[in-house]
Design goal:
Elements: E1 6-10, H1 22-27, H2 29-42, H3 46-52, H4 55-58, H5 61-81, E2 88-91, H6 95-102, H7 108-128, E3 131-137, H8 141-151, E4 158-165, E5 168-174, H9 175-187, E6 192-196, H10 208-220, E7 230-231, E8 238-239, H11 242-252, H12 259-268, E9 273-277, H13 282-290, E10 295-299, H14 302-312, H15 316-329
Parallel strand pairs: 1-2, 1-9, 9-10
Antiparallel strand pairs: 3-5, 3-6, 4-5, 7-8
Helix pairs in contact: 2-5, 2-7, 3-5, 5-6, 5-7, 7-10, 8-9, 10-11
């Protein structure tokens, strides 16, 4: 039987929910260690907010990004403990940091420091230059580009921020420009235009303040050559070199996420199974609609990890024995 060619996908902001990660934390000491490291590095009670909320606190960018990062890395680590190694990884926006940890390019503690800074800078950028975002469904990327160009004005930019699927794009920019673009999209025949509740115009030029602040930290952060290629948001290409990863991470804040192209890259690389590692199922939902021939699996809760292991990993009983042995050896 031909071995599956696997990619791990890592979700971004807005996939969070109260209670995420609790069952993995309670079951595995390795996962508890990740949450403990997060508290030591960031000073924030990521476990408490993730497990017990309240939801309004979890929605705050400084908690959201760290909570999703820790949960996603925890899921990926347990999948690997079950013998499931990806051939490629990709992460949507924030998820690119989780992907880099899973790929062996970025140390988990360093990812915590970068994401903590990233969330703070994005929030500050949103305060300095007020912006918003909107989802547009039913127009092609070319049509979206034209709508955005027509809606721009002096010091009021709007641009595509997430090319999520062939006819699903998120736009971002100054509030008046986004409103004009929403009207323009409706006039151009969009099926739906949905304003998003966000604190800034992410992945647009309004994030220049955040890009500038994060670039110095990224340049100083040690990156290793990737053990597993990551398909980058900015150019939808599989990359492995540390210098290229640094450049693309910096550019990511002010450039669109080319997710549909990234999924095509995985298809071109003959990936036949994708596992969404982390909260929610947004990314596997997009993949189902774009590439029906690729099997999709979700790994969010403990039961999901077990099910994925039974499907494409080592037998659960064998893996559980190894995890227990690892725990005993570490004492």
């Amino acid at each position: 039987m031909t071995q599956a060619r696997i990619a791990f996908l890592f979700p971004g902001q807005a996939s969070q929910y109260v209670g995420m990660g609790r069952d993995l934390h309670d079951r595995y000491p390795q996962v508890r260690s990740l949450y403990q490291q997060a508290r030591e590095i960031t000073g924030a009670d990521i476990a408490g907010v993730s497990f017990d909320g309240p939801a309004e606190t979890l929605k705050q960018t400084n908690y959201t990004q760290l909570a999703i990062l820790v949960h996603s890395v925890a899921v990926a680590s347990m999948l690997k403990a079950h013998g499931i190694e990806p051939d490629f990884v990709a992460g949507h926006s924030l998820g690119e940091y989780s992907a880099l940890v899973a790929a062996g390019a970025l140390d988990f503690e360093e990812s915590l420091r970068l994401v903590r800074l990233r969330s703070a800078l994005m929030h500050e950028a949103g305060q300095r230059r007020r912006g918003t975002m909107a989802a547009v469904i039913g127009l092609s990327p070319r049509e979206i580009d034209e709508v955005c160009r027509a809606a721009c004005a002096d010091d009021e930019p709007v641009q595509p921020a997430n090319y999520n699927a062939p006819v699903q794009t998120v736009i971002a920019g100054a509030v008046p420009a986004v409103e004009r673009a929403m009207d323009g999209a409706r006039s151009a025949g969009a099926k739906r235009v949905v304003p998003l509740k966000v604190s800034g115009a992410f992945h647009s030029e309004l994030m220049e303040y955040a890009r500038h602040g994060l670039s110095e930290a990224i340049e100083k952060t040690p990156f290793s050559r990737l053990e597993t290629p990551v398909v980058a948001n900015v150019n939808a290409r599989a990359v492995t070199e540390p210098d290229e990863i640094r450049r693309l991470l910096i550019e990511q804040l002010t450039h669109p996420v080319r997710w549909a192209e990234s999924m095509q890259t995985l298809a071109d690389q003959e990936v036949d199974t994708v596992v969404e590692a982390g909260p929610g199922n947004v990314l596997t939902g997009l993949m189902k609609r774009m590439h029906r021939g690729i099997a999709v699996l979700n790994a969010d809760k403990l039961a999901d990890v077990t099910a994925v292991a039974e499907s494409i990993g080592r037998p659960v009983a064998e893996t559980h024995g190894r995890l227990v042995a690892d725990r005993l050896e570490s004492r």
